[in-house]
Amino acid sequence: MALNKSMHPRNRYKDKPPNFAYLASKYPDFQKHVQTNLVGGVMLNFKDPEAVRALTCTLLKEDFGLTIEIPLERLIPTVPLRLNYIHWVEDLTGGQGSPRRGIDIGTGASCIYPLLGASMNGWYFLATEVDDICYNYAKKNVEQNNMADLIKVVKVPQKTLLMDALKEESIVYDFCMCNPPFFANQLEAKGVNSRNSRRPPPSSINTGGVTEIMAEGGELEFVKRIIHDSLQLKKRLRWYSCMLGKKCSLAPLKEELRKQGVPKVTHTEFCQGRTMRWALAWSFYEDVSVPSPPCKKRKLEKTRKPLSFTVPGPTAVELHSQISSISSTPTQTPSESITVWLEKILTDLKVLHKRVPCSENELSLFLTAVENTWIHARQKRRERGRQLREVPRAQPQTAPSLTPDTSSDPAPAPDLVPDPELATDTAPAGTAEDSTEPYSDGKETKEQKDTESGTDIIMEASNIEEPKQESSSPQDPPSPSTAHHFLFKCLVNVKAEETDVSVEMHWVEGQNKDLMNQLCTCLKNTLFRQVTKPTSP
Fold this sequence. Notes:
- It is an enzyme of class 2 (transferase).
- It holds the Pfam family Methyltransf_10.
- Its main location: cytoplasm.
- Its EC number is 2.1.1.-.
- S-adenosyl-L-methionine binds at residues 82, 106, 129, 179.
- The chain has a 7-stranded mixed β-sheet with strand order 5-4-3-6-7-9-8, sandwiched between helices.
- By secondary structure, the protein is an alpha/beta fold.
- The chain contains 17 helices and 14 strands.
- It has 2 domains: 4-294, Rossmann fold, CATH 3.40.50; 304-377 and 418-463 and 476-532, no CATH class.
- The two termini are 42 Å apart.
């Protein structure tokens, strides 16, 4: 949940993500879509549209008392993202808990914005829709939640935005909101033209009908049409707003509003899971209060947030009991044992490391990775096992014979039998078992209480000099702090938290943060593999 800490402050999922295990125990329709990973975490396949739909319907039922139906061939909304937009409209209108009138342009089959706004704040909505299937489902969802007195769903012609919807209306609305179709064509919808090649693929499936995800000219031209309507309607609405799927759309739309002389313009960011969206709002009223755009501080805080994982109490205790197998020096606490295990794994991976001073109740390692030795570790283990199995069998030491030996090959010598440990088929060390999806049921570690002091520790660690030695072998590895060529440097903190042990990796410098993410996953998987490893007879 990489961006959840930057959610809207009032978003109920900001500090308390959905508990998949609890929801699965309460809702059978949701339970059949969850899976349990090797360490007991509950996961959801966000590439499966039925699983995404089950999560959305379950959250709306559990947290808002709403019962909805959504066809798989239409857009399936994510609840935290829509909730961010609702809270921002509250900020625009000062309408938290007070009656307001709004318009939802293209409400979709779920009719989620009107249902959330009406159930949370008692808002009245005019919800427009051009698609027959979406219109029918939206009306049904409003009726089965007894919201018909607050939400009016209307069918409008294709390409209708605000002008046609309001031509018979004389009401002054407080706001409009809209999820415009993000894409201009099928290639963009598939990510061929619009997605940076260096970005990872989307973590969830893209659902939606043609009118919901594509429009002529994409979201940029769609929002320009809303701006054109607003220039004619002007004060018929106090605030006009739209959500954007691409950050690059924001600047040209703000420039268009500036050229048209619109007096009040603002924007914001919606952050949730691995997803970011942007929103733009404008008004022709001089007396409206304009929320400030997001500051740059959030991005700085995001770069400082460490990668982390938690070693559960029972796993930490088991690793502590096995410490004698890798170290002759006894350890006092599970966290100290975890640190020794990490040092062993890093040594095997040829990652330079050393212990550095740290705060009380913590152990810290300063790492310098000079070579990517952790990627494809599973394949390397299999290859080693295969090579051992294919070692030529030793021939018996017998006197030379004048005739060829036609007897069968002798059994392999005992010391040539492959080590079953090396041939064990285990999970790939470079693959995250529970990657950053929009929701996660894993236990989160506590953030640093003092970001600045944490940064100081990192910088001090990177500048620590190695003690000079009188003699050094040419084969000795370079010091982590003096290596001139490296992939990245980071600080690893190991800390006891009640019965568990948390491991945090703080970026210092380097070429690519994805490499540190890969190493973090490798360290976690290798630690857990020590507990599940079969014991020798």
